[in-house]
Amino acid sequence: MDESVVVSPNWLASRLEESTVRPIDVRDPWEYDGIGHVPGAVNVPFDSYRDESNVDRGTLPGAEAFADLLSEAGIEPTDTIVAYDDTHGVFAARFVLTALEYGHDDVRLLDGDYSAWNREHETTTDEPEIEPTSYETDPLTREKSPLVDLEAVEAALERGALFLDTREQSEFEEARLPGAVRFDWREVVDDETRRLKPEGELEALLADYGITREREIVLYCNTARRISHTYVVLCGLGYEDVAFYEGSLTEWLANDGEVATGPATSADHRSR
User: Fold this and answer.
1) Nearest to residue 153, comparing CAs of 138, 168, 165?
2) Residue 74, SS3?
């Protein structure tokens, strides 16, 4: 796994004394304060980096709002951010995607979560002293951004791109994009270690679903949270042609997009 994308608990533990390595805990404040956190971690709750005007859609908060958030957290554009949660990394991965989209060059996901960290490494309830900064975002251009809109999704469907639906089976059967393959984002996680499965297992798992490096891949769910984790994992494995449908099924349905329903057929399953 590419360490510029995903880092191990040992990697983070060996660098906690470095002033430019900044752990960010995206759990709720009561978890951060009451249960404990990685030493030096700053709390940036998940709800704070979603669009406040419509949190149900889960869309990006906007460049200015995100700049204010990182300024309050004492983050500089040159810092190495390592995000984590206690839900196998799915909320933290959303932070990673958000920071990348707004131009932060070095943001990584902690492999595992707080529970995985807590098994072998020190935790604390002490809050670090925060010196606010004047953080400025530098959003990616459309050409460089992995985010795609409704029009681009329609074009990708015409091209026969591989659409991955990372939601629950019941959600998938209720409505999905035509031809989509269901890939539960949690399949890449080892339930016992709470960390990602070994790379060999991940590659075999992905291949079993027809997910290969030569395919054009488009990810979607309902509100673009669960696909964040799959996106980060694929990037960590070196996949390059991966698009992120920010509007996801919420936007697709709102625009009367065509859907398939019911159990997946053989054409929708792993043979794609």
Assistant:
1) 165
2) coil
